[in-house]
Amino acid sequence: MIGALITAGATIVAAVIAAVAVGSHDGKPAAQPGPAAVTSAQPHAASPSPSPAASKPVQSLPALSPAPKASKSARVEANPDSGSSGTVINLTGSGFAAGERVRLIFNGSYGKEWQLRDVTASADGGFVAEIKVPAEGVGNQQRSVEAKGLDSKRTADTPFTITE
């Protein structure tokens, strides 16, 4: 008798959980309050079948997007980013075509520029080079150092401040 009551109680609890999980689409609560009816004192051999909602995944993951493509933009960085005329600047560049010549230019005021040297980009499109601040580029003003890919036509620049 006690076993039958435990089985009946477990069946009711399972039914209530399944009803709440499935829910109702008409705005009414899925489980109605009230006493539960026991139709048989015999324990059920079969367990309740899973509800349709229980067999569906709760959340599906989005499809994987393709790996990001390498940037087509060129970059150049100067170290240091300020100094007087004659200061040696270490330039690090990336994003150029493999093996292309890259022209390094110091840009002054009023459109004046000094083409300092050409370097060759590595197989991955990068370079490291040293340049000197031109003696004519004096004046405590913001300037820039530019790198121009002669084949790819990609350009990049970085600020440099003259401190005299």
Overview of the structural elements:
With 164 residues, the protein is of the alpha+beta class. The chain has two helices and eight strands. The strands form two sheets. The chain has a five-stranded mixed beta sheet, with no helix packed on it. A three-stranded antiparallel beta sheet has the order 1-3-6, with no helix packed on it. A hairpin with a 5-residue loop joins strand 4 and strand 5. The longest helix is centred in the N-terminal third of the chain and has 21 residues. About 12% of the residues have low confidence.
Mean pLDDT: 74
Class derived from helix and strand content: alpha+beta
What multimeric state do the chains show? single chain
**Widest sheet, order of strands:** 2-8-7-4-5
Low-confidence stretches are 28-41, 65-70
